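Extended Data, panel c. Modelled sequence:
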Amino acid sequence: MLDFAVNVRDAQPPQWLVRRLAERLGDLARYPGADDVHRAQDAVARRHGRARDEVLPLAGAAEGFALLSNLRPVRAVVVAPAFTEPAAALTAAGVAVRHVVLEPPFGLDGVRPPEDADLVVVGNPTNPTSVLHTREQLLAWRRPGRILVVDEAFADAVPGEPESLAGEALPDVLVLRSLTKTWALAGLRVGYALGAPGLLARLTAQRAHWPVGTLQLTAIAACCDPAAVADAAAGAVRLEACRADMAAGLQAVGAEVFPGRGPFVLFRHPDGVRVREALRDKGIAIRRCDTFVGLDERYLRAAVRREWPLLVRAISEATTNGVHR
């Protein structure tokens, strides 16, 4: 199918990255060493202006969500609509989770989490709404005894990463980053966390030994190299231009497009279920959004792809053929 459901930027990793990974295949008989870990940490630290001990390599950002229960939260809050994994991981660990549900257009103006929340998870830009919150809004949520977790899995898809907290060395802020979408490494699971050393120690209190493999550590170091960062930044500029054209195209065929940044577009159609089914029949996959807290079957999310005219045309044909009555 023509896949607008998954947000991996390209069909495969760049060849230079494939070569870097292939060079390490001969090392797979041994466990990753401290030198592998340090190379990955140092590359991330240079990229964000942090210290080595403020960097934690992860087997994808999803591992970071799975580790949140080690922080022993009692009153956890997830800002929704949002990626479902943090709430699912906390709930599976026996942590009660409350949601602060944002109303369209899904910004934080006038919104505050409960004062007694000791763990708050928020995406920036948020999946699936694509809203980019300001640094000031997020930092205003800090409180004594509270840990603020910012999911920045898609932050590098926004040119200049203007609202990122990755470079802020704050004792109560944990930033989670993913490399899998930008570098087409979803099958390898690659990411990292940024936080104070004491916070990272708590996060990994019950972590398995050697949780991140040699190829993952190699990928982290490679993707945080200055040349790679510059390449990703140039790609983000191209993606943003494509996103603007795609949003305009969706609006032209009757979709209500919500403003945002990043590699996907959230839109609403009065007959979302039938639109999705019609697209499926045409061989086009799109992300349903009624599985996200705060959204219903009218909402759909589409990855930004240069093939967007095919999606727009398919929606137009479906609507013309009686999907919207």
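The longest helix spans residues 226-252. This feature is highlighted in the accompanying rendering.
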